[in-house]
From TrEMBL:
It comes from Streptomyces gougerotii. Residues 352-364 have a biased composition (Low complexity). This is DNA helicase. Pfam families: UvrD-helicase (PF00580), UvrD_C_2 (PF13538). The keyword Zinc does not apply. Residues 214-638 form the UvrD-like helicase ATP-binding domain. One of its GO terms (cellular component) is cytosol. ATP binds at G235, G236, P237, G238, T239, G240, K241, T242. One of its GO terms (biological process) is recombinational repair. Residues 336-365, 770-796 are annotated as: Disordered. Keywords: ATP-binding, Helicase, Hydrolase, Nucleotide-binding. GO terms for molecular function: 3'-5' DNA helicase activity; ATP binding; DNA binding; hydrolase activity.
Length: 796
């Protein structure tokens, strides 16, 4: 057996050597072309020179990646029967999925007609035969899809493990075990078993790995689903939703790079999950082509760092805030344009800015000016507070964003002053009257004092300043009347008191969605567009590689889209069950014309009103057709842990199916009752797990214990981390300690679902520590995790 293995490894080694030789040849060719181009100097057209540079660059990237980045550049192979027709695709492989009628001989033997190697990028030999097929190419699909039940043309599917230029091992699956297959006249060898299991058993690090070598058929169908419309993917914890979302982004880019480069947005719930996942795309060869952003970083210049108490978060995320924000945006006009340091917080605060004093403004307070006085045609014309109020109401009856209504307000002010001046009656002749009127307008508009008045009376509002203005409890009570309860308004106002009057200060993830809504309500007045300076290196770097038509390079397009920030071509939402209605509105604005992939698990939702969120989601996704997929296999948790978690699932969402765990370790979860102080027990358990696993250990606590837990674990090293329950979403560790299930469950209305998330983070071992609020039985199993949990213990 060892002989067979060694022989098969050396066969693959020969192939890999051939691939590297071919790549080196390509580099030499490209270098020759470059030298040649230099020799010929001016003879080549600029386009041809740029094309050569691009070739050199591309070949360089290839080799560099192969040598440095892609540890397992070549990872798969399929041996196939003859296809139904003799057609070949652009990658040189036969296209037919089904075998030819006579591919299997009557005596049950068959010849392998085609062997394909699958890798992270495609490589063609000098005669255009495929040496390596890109994993995203149609010809590679059978590598992922073929099963013994539906084998298609695949007889043997091989996973190749390599590091750098060296092949380390191979693992085979036979898809048609009933056949006696021959390859070049020799019987087809089969080595090892369980490539998937080998992948799953590996120790976890703090960053996610790609699964390109072991994508499963149900996942492959999602990854390769057509981009059009909305692809909805549901599946329990560990079913590969995040992995599938990332691989789908790479697949879409491969399919239609021109359309998607720079235009794919992946939205993740937390910065922790962003840093956990963002290495996957570069490993798939898609560095910098896709924006992965946390919900709290979707608005330029804002970065969520603060947490809201659950009760405040619930209100801030609710769609009811839309109305509150609309009123706040209009109401904030009344606060006048006090300088940022004084704007907002307190209506009584501060003096009016100096420039406004000669406009008849009250010296204090800093509210809007109460009178407008101008001189026109040598006469003084004045509008009092009541008239100004009427003009403002008229102006606000327009539907445009508040900042964009300013020109309308200015026109209505001029109309009101004109009416006041009596100028309208001076001429019967319409032409003369019109001339008089335009002279009048010009007179007023040229007055600096009028502009200063307008700035104070209809200031350009920033989202941050309006948000900060909402920190005043009385004011917010007014703006939210009949929409929020008094207690709700108070909680929101208090949570905003972190901000200074200009809105600077720590923001929560919910504040960011409010800022985005405010930006839409306020609008940004047009500013001259900044032109990107031409970079002389642009046409040397060869980054136009896949854009032969020189309209706009990928790079320029990516940069333009990032700068404009507004819209993406495809939006992928990870952990979609957690978006609040306000967050759906924010994300929806980034994909109004987009196609979508939305992955999530309702059972893991930490939002208290799933129906309200579902309605907002439907609105964001519009009426595009939906395509639904369900992932059913849990690749993360061993069966022992999955079984325990399913008890909480039964409480959190009765009747909801648990995904099937794909492996079992024989290690049952461990239950420990905390002594006093609790930290000592937790620390000891974390230390114990560090001894037993090679990779990482996550200690999940209720949000309010986050900082305390970090202190408990101080000094244990980098392999262990403390996490609040809401931060654990999407992450995984070799082993986890879940501290006090009851505390996690009690923390919010969706607490049981949050506990379900916490319990499903471990790939190998789980320890549950009961605290004071838990009621452990004789074996230390807390009440919430017993399979016979009495409903009255749920504290409902
Ligand atoms: N086909 C596969 N081959 C190897 N590993 C896989 C495969 N599918 C998923 N995994 C692994 O299983 C783990 C769980 O995947 P992932 O995080 O994508 O699941 P998820 O559905 O997003 O989970 P959750 O809902 O808990 O966030 C990851 O370590 C991932 O690499």
């Amino acid at each position: 057996m060892a002989d067979v293995r060694d022989r098969e490894i050396s066969i693959e080694q020969d192939h890999l050597d051939g691939v590297y030789r071919r790549l080196e040849e390509k580099i030499q060719e490209a270098e020759f072309l470059m030298r040649d181009a230099a020799r010929r100097g001016q003879v080549g057209t600029p386009g041809a020179l740029a094309e050569r540079d691009a070739q050199v660059f591309r070949a360089g990237i290839h080799l560099n990646r192969l040598n440095n980045e892609f540890e397992d550049f070549l990872f798969g192979r399929i041996d196939l029967l003859l296809g139904k027709d003799g057609e070949k695709g652009p990658d040189g492989a036969y296209t037919s999925v089904e075998p030819a009628d006579d591919a299997v001989h009557p005596d049950g033997t068959a010849d392998i007609a085609e062997t394909l190697h699958i890798g992270r990028i495609g490589v063609l030999d000098a005669d255009y035969t495929p040496l390596v097929i890109d994993w995203r190419a149609p010809a590679a699909a059978p590598f992922y899809r073929s099963t013994p039940v539906e084998p298609g043309r695949v007889v043997r599917r091989r996973v190749i493990r390599s590091k750098g230029r060296q092949v380390l091992g191979v693992e085979d699956d036979l898809m048609r075990p009933e056949l006696t297959a021959r390859l070049a006249g020799e019987p087809l060898a089969v080595v090892g078993d369980g490539a998937l299991m080998a992948a799953l058993g590996q120790a976890r690090s703090h960053t996610m790995r790609d699964i390109v070598a072991s994508i499963q058929a149900e996942q492959d169908r999602v990854i390769r689903a057509p981009a059009a419309s909305v692809t909805l993917v549901e599946g329990g914890p560990g079913t590969g939703k995040t992995a599938v979302a990332l691989h789908r982004a790479a697949y879409l880019l491969y399919q239609d790079r021109r359309r998607y480069a720079g235009g794919i947005l992946i939205v993740s719930p937390t910065p922790l999950l962003v840093s956990y996942t963002e290495g996957v795309l570069p490993s798939l060869g898609e560095e910098g082509q896709v924006a992965i952003r946390a919900l709290g970083s979707l608005v330029d210049g804002a970065e969520a760092t603060a947490y809201d108490p659950p009760a405040a978060a619930r209100v801030k995320g609710s769609a009811r805030m839309v109305q509150v924000l609309r009123r706040a945006a209009r109401g904030a006009l009344d606060l006048g344009a006090a300088p940022p340091a004084r704007a907002g917080r307190d209506e009584e605060a501060g003096e009016a800015p100096e420039g406004q004093l000669d406009l008849g403004l009250p010296a204090a307070p800093a509210g809007p000016p109460e009178r407008l006085r101008v001189v026109a045609f040598g006469r003084r014309v004045e509008l009092d507070a009541a008239e100004l109020g009427r003009v403002r109401r008229d102006a606000l009856s327009g539907t445009a964003p508040v900042n964009l209504l300013r020109p309308r307000a200015r026109r209505l002010l001029l109309d009101a002053l004109w009416a006041r001046s009596g100028g309208a009656g001076r001429h019967q002749d319409p032409e003369l009257a019109a001339e008089l009127r335009s002279g009048f307008d010009e007179d007023i508009l040229s007055e600096d004092s009028f502009t200063a008045f307008l700035d104070a009376w209809w200031p350009e509002l920033t989202p941050r300043a309006v948000l900060a203005a909402m920190a005043d409890e009385k004011r917010l009570a007014r703006w939210s009347r009949k929409v929020l309860g008094q207690g709700e308004a108070r909680r929101v106002a208090r949570s905003l008191s972190r901000l200074d009057p200009a809105g600077e200060g720590p923001l929560s993830v919910h504040d960011v969605a409010l800022l985005d809504e405010l930006e839409a309500v306020l609008g940004t007045p047009p500013r001259p567009r900044r032109k990107r300076e031409a970079d002389p290196l642009d046409h040397l770097t060869g980054l136009q590689e896949l854009m032969p038509v020189r309209e706009e390079t990928q790079w320029e397009r990516a940069e333009r889209l990032a700068q404009e920030r507004t819209e993406y071509t495809h939006v992928i939402v990870d952990e979609a069950q957690d978006l609040t209605p306000m967050q759906w509105r924010m994300v929806g604005r980034r994909g109004r014309q987009a196609t979508w992939t939305v992955v999530g698990d309702p059972a893991q939702s930490s939002w208290s009103d799933p129906d309200e969120a579902a309605a907002a989601r439907e609105e964001a996704l519009g009426n595009r057709p939906r395509r639904r997929f369900t992932l059913t296999v849990n690749y993360r948790n061993p069966a022992e842990i999955a079984e325990l978690a399913s008890r909480v699932l039964a409480l959190a969402m009765p009747g909801s199916p648990s995904p099937r765990a794909v492996r079992s370790t024989g290690v049952e979860p461990r239950f420990v009752v905390a002594g006093e102080p609790m930290g000592e027990t937790v620390r000891a358990e974390a230390a114990r797990l560090l001894e037993t696993v090679d990779g990482t250990v996550g200690v999940v606590v209720a949000m309010e214990r986050r900082e305390q837990a970090a202190r408990w674990l101080a000094g244990l090293g980098e392999r262990v981390v403390a996490l609040g329950s809401l931060e654990a979403k999407g992450l995984e560790y070799d082993a986890t300690v879940v501290v006090s299930p009851a505390e996690v469950a009690d923390e919010s209305p969706a607490g049981l679902r949050v506990l379900y998330v916490a319990l499903t983070r471990a790939t190998q071992q789980l320890t549950v520590v009961s605290g004071r609020r838990d009621q452990p039985d004789a074996d230390g199993v807390p009440d919430l995790l017993r399979d016979d949990v009495p409903p009255e213990l749920l504290g409902e």
